[in-house]
Structure formats: C-alpha cells, structure tokens
Structure prediction request, 299 residues.
Amino acid sequence: MTTGAATAGNEASVAGAFDLSTVPVSAAPLGAFPYFSLPDGYVSTGEVTHDFFSFPFWVKGAFRAVEGKVYMSMIEPEDDQQFSRLELQRNIEAVINRAGGIKISQAPVTTEAINALGDQTISDTTAGTGDIYNNEVATYVIRRADKTIWVHFDAGNSSAGLTVAETAPLVVTAGLLPADQLRRELEADGRVAIQVNFAVDKADILPESRGQIDAVLALLRDQENLRLGVEGHTDNTGSAAHNRALSEARARSVVAALTGAGIAVNRLEPRGFGPDRPVADNDAEAGRAKNRRVELVKL
Prediction:
C-alpha cells in the first residue's frame, strides 16, 4: 500500500478537470460499437470510424483529448421529418442513461478553445463535432469494467454532430487484485493484502484505488455470507499512537466505501494496528512500503 499527496481538492477549480472514478461502473447490456441507434425519423450521414484516433471532448470549459476507437457522424432528419434538437438529445440521453452513463458537461465551446485546436484537428473531426462554433456541446461518459465510453453531442436547428469513443479501462494498477484472486487467497491463507492508496498522513482514499474497492465489492456481492475484518497497518515512522489511530481511520474509510455501495455493516469489522504487525524490515523504504497496507481477514 502506498501513499501520495492529495490533489483532488484543487481539481474542481481547474478547467477540464474531471475524475472518472466518480462515475459508477456499469454492467448494463450494450450492443455492438458504436452502441447507440437513432430515434425514428433521423439518419446518420458522413459516418467515419477509426480503430485508433484522438478526439477532443469538451469537458467543463476545456477540451480533453480521448484516444481509442472513435465513431463520428452527422445526424439529419429523414425525408419530411422536422428536426428537433430537444427530441434528439432527450432520446440520446435516455439510451445513455439506460447504459449506466451520466452527463458530465453541457456548455458552449469558447472561440479561444476552438482556435487552440488548430485547423488540422478541426478538419479531421468535422464529421463528429457538428457546428461547435454555434452549438452547445453535451458530453457523456459510460464507465465499464473493461472500457470507458465517451459521447459527444451537439445540435443546431437542422442537424447534429455525434461522436462515440471507446477507450481502455480507467484503472490499471500493478497491485490490483481481482475478485477471484482475493477469494483464492482468503480461502488459502485467511487473509490478503489489497492495493489501497491514501493521501499522505490521512484516511482519504485516492481515486486510483477505485478499481481495488470495486474488486472487493464484487467479492462480497458474490459471497453473501462472507464476513471480513478490514485491517489497517503502517510503518514505524512517527509515534506508535498516531499510527494506530491513522491505521484505524484508514480501515474505517475502506469499510465506509464498501458499506456506501450497499454492503451490510455487520459484514465488516475495521481494525487499526499501526506499526505493531510489520511484515518487512522498517529500516529500508522497500520494507516500510510493504508494511503500509490494508489487509482483508476472513472472520
């Protein structure tokens, strides 16, 4: 278990800042890429699909480049259908909501931001951006266990632009243990250390630990009778009393994250041992890093 400086508190004021870990992981059924069909009366024109491409998504006042598989198209009314921006957006939002997605941003794009994109990017993405010079842009995200899906939508009086991008998973952590491995180690040893990162000298769980928390949730949901002790441990830096209190606060933070996601309180027991149960030598940083850990213990 490692620790790092907290930065999330400052991100809210930064243009374009958005923490993907705040989006719940969805397992709702999806069709084939690009996942969404248009409502009756509308057709896609000028469709373009790239197996790997970078598209600028408008997020909270700034463009955010998202790389991956990208689909872009214009949307126009079919035959004598009257174009309705509101109808089209409501339909698209309903489909995204059913897929477990959320809208993370909706706002006009600034001229300065468009100019900063450069002529080449604007030319390469015209099929999917629509008229971002004049239209308000909505951005949506669907977070899944194996991918993140971004959706750009903007509409004017007679047409709209739609882009769907599929990226790699949000959380890729070397120490991440999936639910099946957690189960095997608990069955074999009765305990397992998990990868949970905290702010320095605090009990705040950092966003990169969301994947590990999700794996523990999956384990507890799969084994409804499983009860766990959640144990916090530190190295021997600082006073023992402070470290015991800190380790218990961190254990309680993990329990709160799990119970907040629907796990019954009586299935989890937080404990803090501070530096009292080292698993490595505290004389070297490598050993201290191993001692800073959270362990799950089968009760």
About this structure: The chain has eight helices and twelve strands. The first strand starts at residue 3 and ends at 4. Residues 28 and 98 are 7 Å apart (CA to CA).
